[in-house]
Amino acid sequence: MAVFDKRVTDYYSWVIPKGNKILIGAAIPAEKSPKYGTASQRFEYLKEDLTIKGFDLSCPLKRQGCRLLRPRAVGSVNSGGGRVFLAGEAAGLISPSSSEGISFAMRSGEKLAKAMGRLVKSDKKKAKDLIHLRYRQALRPLKLSIFLKTFKSFVMYTPLVRAMVFLTGALSIKGPVKSRKWSL
After folding, report:
1. Are residues 130 and 90 in the same domain?
2. pLDDT tens digits, 59-105
């Protein structure tokens, strides 16, 4: 479940069922908001709203947090340099609209492995430069995907535009949704 509440974040919060437990989270700015307070205070707004909606949050198992990269442009992608090659989130390859990163990590890792697989063993300096060149070229489709998702991000995180999309039913799933069995 996605939750959009400007008191909590300009991005989104989520509730994910995990067996008989739930995982709640939010992409909350680290800076204190003059209007809504600290990240902890803003997270409390989310918990209060979920409790009102019937979620039992009385026995938290653990609490953790981390920085969340939110790329704003393709220029945020950095494949590395010198003897360093970056892939996945380290390279800035993460969806600006959903924060999903595992597919970008898998695809960029594969592209880097293929670029390295063609390693020229005779001259290490040339080989390094050639790998960087091939890797940057291979990342073009992923950069295009991020570029396109910045537009989706605009729709999702601009309240007026998002409201119009929801009201009109644009981009909604049409017809019956097939049931799916999940296995771990």
Report:
1. yes
2. 888 888 877 777 777 788 899 998 899 999 899 898 888 888 899 99
Residue with the two structure tokens 């091939």: 134
| Percentage of the residues of the chain whose pLDDT score is greater than 90 | 32
**Reported pTM:** 0.65
What local confidence, expressed as pLDDT, does residue 121 receive?
60
Q: Please check whether residue 138 lies inside any domain of the structure.
A: yes
Domains in the chain, number: 2
